[in-house]
Amino acid sequence: FGGRVVSEEILINSTPSEARVALVENGMLQEVWMERAGRTGYIGNIYKGEVSRVLPGLQAAFVDIGLERTAFLHARDMVRQDPVTDEGETPAEPLISDLLRPGDQLIVQVIKDPLGSKGARLTTNISIPSRFLVLLPDCDVIGISVRIEEEEERARLKDLVYRLRDEGHGHGYIVRTNAEGVNDFALSADMAYLVKVWQSILERAETAKAASSVFEDLSLPMRALRDMMHEQVERVRIDSRQETEKAREFAQRFVPDWLDRIEEYSAERPIFDLFGVEDEIENALKPSVPLKSGGYLVFDQTEAMTTVDVNTGGYVGNRNVAETIYKTNLEAVQALSRQLRLRNLGGIIIIDFIDMADEEHRRQLMRALERALERDPVKTSLTEISALGLVEMTRKRTTESLERRLCIPCPQCDGRGTIKSSETVCLEIFREIMRSSRQFEASTLMVLASPHVVERIQDEQSSTVAELEELIGKSIRFQREEQYSQEQYDVVLL
């Protein structure tokens, strides 16, 4: 990003049925989150769980926490590791059968929402975030966010947190990126708040029934303020008076200096029409993303992975072919990094850049991709371009993608993305007629099908129908059914 000044704005759209938050950077939508009534996320929530089944072969257990599907707890998520500094040796993974038995009750936290047919992912390593710190109960770790890069500031914060902890707060802490430059008063207030929260969780857990919640994270608008407010955010606009008041109360408690950045949005124009946010969300559900040069990206999201194909399209450039391909790939990198955040794509991602013979072009493309991903708050890992010209990467997945949250599989094609052609359906109908005529006695067969299929049979396949009637010795009639999909048909005996 080469020193470019970044200006951010947070837009919050709140209704009784849904809350949506958009992060706009230099006038362009970067990320969007949504939470619907009755379908809120579970990440960060803490439960008193009950072990329902232990699976020694998988080193895991199923735990009932009161959700529709039992949650999944792996043995490695029961060993506290430093998630920030990664210093020292990784502790050995204990045997799940030595740790848990069916019927055991324990305090667990959701680290990954239920995805598809999978239950939530759990950990016993509780972490409670606040404005500047993350509390790690009953732990000695002091970690500093890797996004705080100046060694002098890292050392200052570490010394400060050690001193405050030793003065009576106890526990382990991770210092968040937001803490850069803050004083000891702010960190001490955060510590005191987090310790009180943890004490209340322990008290609730003592009397709570098994498979019940003992702590729920903040609502989406408040989480946005807690996690996203920093110096580059110029203002937060909220289109609900009630949520604006809540946000100001929250800011008064945690970030009083930024109270004047929180505004109530009361204009007639919907707040998500600003900066074209609503249109951007709509476009993010489409597989193709156009590039300014005339090239385009194609996203294909499957259960196993997401693939991204880069194409030159109508871009021919004004130099040689190698330069045209290189420029298209570079432009694709910027669009790709933004789309990963906007679409909330996670897991394995395979990028098929346009093949480049020049080794220097390949090297510069990879560096450009690395720099573009640096601003992504979600952890990513990247491999070099393979011999086939593919780049493999992973992006940590904790919640469903935008498409999975907003869409359902197409009822016409059952989520395949294609439907059978009318010609294919016609031939299937003819086979079904032959099968039915042999099995059942009837003088007439009635075919019920979509108007398009019936029209094709009567216009283009009439001679075939005549031959078929002669072959089976029965009359065949056709009836249009407006409600039938193209693949749907019935053969009825009359």
Q: What's the helix and strand layout?
A:
Blueprint: E1 8-14, E2 18-25, E3 28-36, E4 46-55, E5 60-64, E6 71-74, H1 96-99, E7 105-112, E8 121-123, E9 128-129, E10 133-136, E11 142-144, H2 151-169, E12 172-175, H3 184-207, E13 212-215, H4 220-228, E14 233-238, H5 241-254, E15 262-264, H6 277-283, E16 288-290, E17 296-301, E18 305-311, H7 321-343, E19 347-352, H8 359-373, E20 380-382, E21 390-395, H9 402-406, H10 422-439, E22 444-449, H11 451-460, H12 462-472, E23 475-480, E24 489-493
Question: Care to describe what's here?
Answer:
- Helix content is 32%, strand content 26%.
- The chain is an alpha+beta fold.
- The strands form 5 sheets. Strands 16-17-18-19-21-20 form a 6-stranded mixed β-sheet, with helices on one face.
- Helix 10 (422-439) packs across helix 11.
- It is globular and about 95 Å long.
Mean pLDDT: 88
Strand order within the widest sheet? 16-17-18-19-21-20
What is the number of helical segments per DSSP (H or I, 4+ residues)? 12
**What distance separates the N and C termini?**
72 Å
| Poorly predicted runs | 83-88
Alpha carbon gyration radius: 29 Å
Please summarize the sheet with the most strands. 6 strands, mixed
DSSP, total strands: 24
Structural class based on helices, strands and sheet pairing: alpha+beta
Q: Indicate the percent of residues in helices.
A: 25-40%
Q: How large is the share of residues in beta strands?
A: 25-35%
Shape estimate: globular
What oligomeric state best describes the polypeptide chains here? Answer: single chain
